[in-house]
From TrEMBL:
MF-aspect GO terms: rRNA binding; structural constituent of ribosome
Name listed for the protein in its UniProt record: 30S ribosomal protein S7
Keywords assigned by UniProt, alphabetized: Ribonucleoprotein, Ribosomal protein, RNA-binding, rRNA-binding
GO cellular component: small ribosomal subunit
Amino acid sequence: MKEGSIVPRRGNVPKREILPDPMYNSVLVTKLINSVMLDGKKGVAQKVVYDAFDIIKEKTGKEPLDAFTEAMNNIMPSLEVKARRVGGATYQVPMEVRPERRQTLGLRWLTGYARKRSEKTMKERLAGEIMDACNNTGAAVKKREDTHKMAESNKAFAHFRW
């Protein structure tokens, strides 16, 4: 490690300010662009996201930002399970998800499952996944349901929370 580089052992690392995107003036859209971005190619990612939003507007007639916000609300989990070792046994302990992490997980699942879709281009895949999530269907929404189901079935271990 270089001389003078500061690695915090304790305490929090300051969050970098994320600027709202130029087209929709939304921080959430910027986060989506950053999530879609590969190899630091932000221009390509912006084009993919904006084209996907155009497809959404064309197909649903809704305002793309509203559709995206609704989709995110349908994807973001409120509960998750975390592994916790107690006396040699590992328990899946249900936990509430912090708002920041809810958003991060929602975006991660949205882009992850959009990439796995069968449409030809990424803009079509992303638009499809957002529209599905808007209608409470699609892989990302299923992931949230599964996560909630896991938390529900492990409710008995909730007293192991720390």
